[in-house]
Amino acid sequence: MNFKLSIILAIITTIPLYLLIPSPHVSDEQLTAHLHNKVVLLSGADNGIGEELAYQLAGYGAKLVLVGGNPEKLSRIREGVISRGTPEIDIFAILFDFTDVNITEEVVKQTVKKFGGLDFLVSNHDVTTPGPFLSLSYLQNPDFIEQVFKENLFSHIQLALHALPYLEKQNGHMFVTSSLCGEIPLYGTTSTLHSSSKHGLNGFFYSLQQELIARQSPVSITVGAFGFVWTRELSYIYAEGNPKLSWLSGSEKDAARGVLEAYVTRPLTMTFPTLPGIVHRMISYFTPQLLKILRVTQDSF
Predict the structure, then answer these.
(1) Whether 39 contacts 63, CB under 8 Å
(2) Distance from C-alpha of 13 to C-alpha of 282, rounded to nearest angstrom
(3) Which residues contact 204 (CB under 8 A, 6 or more apart)?
(4) SS3 66
(5) pLDDT tens digits along 108-145
(6) What's the sign of the alpha-carbon dihedral 124, 99, 227, 78?
(7) pLDDT tens column, 11-24
(8) Under DSSP, is residue 115 helix (H, G, I), strand (E, B) or coil?
(9) How far apart are CA 59 and CA 31, in angstroms?
(10) What secondary structure, in 3-state letters, does 231-285 show?
């Protein structure tokens, strides 16, 4: 395809997609009506947008099961939720290492034992592996690769599998936090290994969506295609901000709000931030040559 023509196609495809993608407004009243007293299992509560998700979910009256691998962070977030008015009886913290895939079922069992059921699974845990795969020998270690796939893929599958029977009883919903690098290569901000695990995650859950639809299951799944989210962790790294990232990034507050709204609207995919995500998709589809430019930009971060 002619290079100039491909650029034009990318532009004219991006604009209508951005303008026409439905973004139904979900009010605070709607969120309260849907989330109040609902049981939400939030994995990765101590990681990325997990903390903000915990606070927002609690603010709408959800009963929370917070799962994470960092005991200090998990305890701090639990206390933060309680200090915001959530009764201690409505919050339960589970310290868990998701590389231990074989006992992932225990997280669901403890949730159901504590609250009697499950309405909303937010599968949000993740391990990042930044850096070029071919240049860093530790990324190539088979044991390390296995650990990454256990946490970023296999544990999500097992968590969904064991949560599904309880979600079906409640007409529940799953939100799986994935990444744009699960659709297109984003070398520079992530690694080949991380991207490949996210491709596997997307492949499984988009396929599971179709299987549930075919079975006429009451359970729905949203796959979150997240780009650059300005988390608390990144704010410490870039204490004075980073103008190169400003137009590409979205706030963790808005990202978390989008996850909550997905429980109400139940889209198949949530892209965040919307415009950069769509732009990057269109560039990768129509003008992959431009990804070389983006890689140079990413490497300069």
Answers:
(1) yes
(2) 7
(3) 153, 156, 157
(4) strand
(5) 999 999 999 999 999 999 988 877 888 888 888 999 99
(6) positive
(7) 555 445 444 455 56
(8) helix
(9) 10
(10) CHHHHHHCCCCCHHHHCCEEEHHHHHHHHHHHHHHCCCEEEECHHHHHHHHHHHH
Spatial separation of the C-alpha atoms in residues 203 and 182, rounded to whole Å:
9
Question: How is residue 9 written in tokens?
Answer: 């196609």
Rounded mean pLDDT of the chain?
84
**Both tokens assigned to 88:** 């201690």
User: Positive or negative, the Cα torsion across 73, 78, 79, 81?
Assistant: positive
Residue 214 above 60 pLDDT? yes
Tell which wins on pLDDT, 7 or 67.
Answer: 67
Q: What is the DSSP string of 24-50?
A: ----HHHHHHHHTT-EEEEETTTSTTH
Paired tokens of 294: 């983006």
Buried b / exposed e along 222-236 (16+ C-beta atoms within 10 A)? bbbbbbbbbbeeeee
Predicted confidence at residue 133, as pLDDT, reads 83
Give how far the C-alpha of residue 250 lies from the chain's centroid of Cα atoms, to the nearest Å. 13
User: What is the pTM assigned to this prediction?
Assistant: 0.84
CA nearest to 258, candidates 26, 61, 34, 20: 26
